[in-house]
Amino acid sequence: MVLLDTNAILRYMLQDDREMADSVELQLLNNACYIPVEVVAEFVYVLLKVYGVERNVIAQAVARIADADNVRLAQGSVVRHALNVFASSTLDFVDCLLVGYAKEKQYSVFTFDKKLQKYLK
């Protein structure tokens, strides 16, 4: 299994370095690939804060790579729920992950964040 890091996913999705993007594509086609939650969080942050990509476009990008045949997304149902919340809210992605854990895994989240509490109800 090949663990993909944020930079690899960025190069593949942005296609800003053709050689690197092609290299990532070969990995995706020829190996089982794994994307940890931490990498998704960093990917979302970089696209939002550095590249100014809209939230719904980011959610679609993550879903697109997660749907690739050879890709396994860590905590897939949690991340997908988080992406839906992220696309339709102003919550930080990590808070969206907490909502995903609460909804998908029935975890209780202890927080003082009023905005997050609203989504947890």
Q: How would you sum up this structure, described in words?
A:
With 121 residues, this protein is mainly α. The chain has one domain: 3-Layer(aba) Sandwich (Rossmann fold), CATH 3.40.50. It contains seven helices and three strands; from the N terminus they run E-H-H-E-H-H-E-H-H-H. It has a three-stranded parallel β-sheet. It is globular. It starts with a strand and ends with a helix.
Offer a concise description of the structure.
This protein is mostly helical and 121 residues long. The chain has helices spanning 6-14, 18-30, 37-50, 55-66, 76-87, 93-105, 114-120; strands at 2-3, 33-35, 71-73. The chain has 7 helices and 3 strands; from the N terminus they run E-H-H-E-H-H-E-H-H-H.
Can you lay out the helices and strands and say which pair or pack?
Elements: E1 2-3, H1 6-14, H2 18-30, E2 33-35, H3 37-50, H4 55-66, E3 71-73, H5 76-87, H6 93-105, H7 114-120
Helix pairs in contact: 1-2, 1-3, 3-4, 4-5, 5-6
* Overall pLDDT metric: 96
- Any idea what the CATH architecture is? 3-Layer(aba) Sandwich
Percent helix, as a range, is 55-70%
Q: What order do the helices and strands follow?
A: EHHEHHEHHH
Widest sheet: strand order? 1-2-3
The largest pleated sheet is described as: 3 strands, parallel
Q: What is the number of domains? A: 1
**Poorly predicted regions:** none
Q: What is the CATH class?
A: Alpha Beta
Total strands? 3
Structural class assignment: mainly alpha
CATH topology, by name, is Rossmann fold
| Rg | 15 Å
**Range of strand content:** 5-15%
Shape: globular
The N- to C-terminal Cα distance equals 38 Å
Number of helices: 7
